[in-house]
Amino acid sequence: MMRPKKNHYIQDLILEGEHEHQDFKYQITDARKIARSIAAFANNSGGHLLIGVKDNGNIAGVRSEEEIYMIETAAQMYCRPEQKVTFKVFNINGKSVVKADIAEAEEKPVEAPDDNGNWHVYYRVADENVLASRLHERIMSKETEIAENHTSETISYSDREQVLLDYLRNHGGITLDGYMKLAHISEETATRIVVALHSMGVLSLQYHDGQCLIVAP
Fold first, then answer.
1. What percent of the chain stands above pLDDT 70?
2. Fewer beta carbons under 10 A from the terminal one: N or C of the chain?
3. Using an 8 Å Cβ cutoff, are 96 and 89 in contact?
4. Concatenated DSSP letters for the chain?
5. 46 in the Ramachandran plot: left (φ > 0), alpha (ψ -120 to 50) or beta?
6. Residue 99 β-bridge partners
7. Under the phi-then-psi rule, with left for phi > 0, alpha for psi from -120 to 50, and beta for the rest, what region is 29?
8. In this predicted model, what pLDDT tens digit does every residue of 152-206 receive, in sequence order?
9. CA 51 – CA 132 distance, rounded (Å)
10. Residue 177, class by beta-carbon neighbours within 10 Å (0-12 exposed, 13-18 middle, 19+ buried)?
11. Pairing of strands 95-102, 111-113
12. What's the pTM?
């Protein structure tokens, strides 16, 4: 049985509110649903769940063993590949709050099922879990491939690459569709170019108003 920690620094975390690396959960009732949060954090740079905390930051408390079991089930059965979650239990004024830490995944993308059982890739943006774009999925896969094979990406610059870099320098961000039209190229060609440039650190992705934008780093 995990013993509650009498460390009240958890209250300082609650004051931060929900954000890119922190999510409040009143309680865990659906392992598949919480798997989306785990996958979203794992596909980003990690994060943690505070279970037993309402959306407004009020501490409700939980039965720690039950919550831990549900989260472990979510991480092992409803995350693909399965993820490891570490736990700490805090006693705040007689109420248990579970802090579940999710590390950034070594193998991306991490998938989780929706309510219909269809598997998707989720990503953490601000205080929400969003569906990752197909472009982002390709980039995650390329990052994993490079890390596993200890390789690097090379690319020969042409007008197709230069028009994108010039646009980003002068205008900020562009969608994949926008780049396809700008350079008069197919989706596959545009995706391949963006994935290669991203792996070289020349550009990055940013989610804004429901769109995935290609931006300068």
1. 94
2. N
3. yes
4. -PPPB--TTHHHHHHH-SBTTEEEES----HHHHHHHHHHHHHTT-EEEEETB-TTS-B----HHHHHHHHHHHHHHSSBS---EEEEEEEETTEEEEEEEEPPPSS---EEE-TTS-EEEEEEETTEEEEPPHHHHHHHHHHHHHHHHT--------HHHHHHHHHHHHH-EE-HHHHHHHHT--HHHHHHHHHHHHHTTS-EEEEETTEEEEE--
5. left
6. 50, 88
7. alpha
8. 666 678 999 999 999 999 999 999 999 999 999 999 999 999 999 999 999 999 9
9. 25
10. exposed
11. unpaired
12. 0.91
Q: What local confidence, expressed as pLDDT, does residue 152 receive? A: 67
Cis amide prior to 81 (ω within 30 degrees): yes
28 vs 20: CA distance, rounded Å: 20
Give the N- to C-terminal CA distance of the chain in Å, as an integer: 46
- Cα–Cα distance, 170 to 93 (Å, whole number): 54
Query: Residue 63 — pLDDT band, cuts 50, 70, 90?
Result: confident
HSE at residue 179, side-chain half, CA atoms within 13 A, is: 29
What does the pLDDT read at residue 7?
54
pLDDT of residue 156: 73
